[in-house]
Model the fold of this input.
Amino acid sequence: MIPAGFDYHAPRSVADAVKLLGSLGPDAKLLAGGHSLLPMMKLRFATPSALIDLGKIPDLKGIGESGGEIRIGAMTTEHELLNSKLIADKLPLLIEGVGQIADPQVRYRGTIGGDICHGDPANDHPALMLALDASFVLSGPKGERVVKADAYFVGLYETLAAADEILTQIRIPVPAAGTGWSYTKLKRKTGDFATAAAAVLLQMKGGTVARVSMALTNVGPTPLKCRNAESYLVGKPIDDGTLKEAARLATESCTPGVCLRGDADYKTAMAGEMARRALQTAQSRAKA
Done:
């Protein structure tokens, strides 16, 4: 189908984009990669009066390191992330996750900020951001504010970003040397959303878990941080018994919807299995 008519704007700065977002009213939409918005417009499930294209704003692109953090512009594409030596060296978990997003065509256009702002728990970045303890910089008419990822996702397609704010940057603390990682994803075919997936960062010391961060994809209205499983694992070895219990604890808050990828019980069971496998892989990559 053909989208309904709309006005098109291409600001050259974040300040201009914020002004446009405020002046054009609630029917205006931000355009990043467009993989979520444009199909909705073609089906006329979304009929924005105006699009504000963020692709011409240079300050929204780029990858750098500052103050022990990796800082990523919100309009940085998945392809650019995959080809960043800095990301590969400092955030291998992000590389592993991004490499499983859709297909090369999508990764050439899709952006990290667009993925995060969509607030879809089936997307891969939200759980990755929780596991990586990321923060998001939001810019609006009152200036900038920084929001932690574990507070940002508040419901299905809902985030803490206000209607007049723009996500401009993602900040991720560099994990300690020797940290193991894994993004383990079950999907029906290449390019599909996850039936369930688990993101893990793991630090070992003296044969036991010193620190662990774990989150799940597509088994609730938001990405799920596995806090009970994390607390349980600290101070314990990674063995069959602890893996089984950690997987059980990880699935306690799973409330997946029913779809062609399976019923709720199956998806929950697979979330536990992905958590178990991710922990095993992360341990194999960790250095005490």
The longest strand covers residues 196-205.
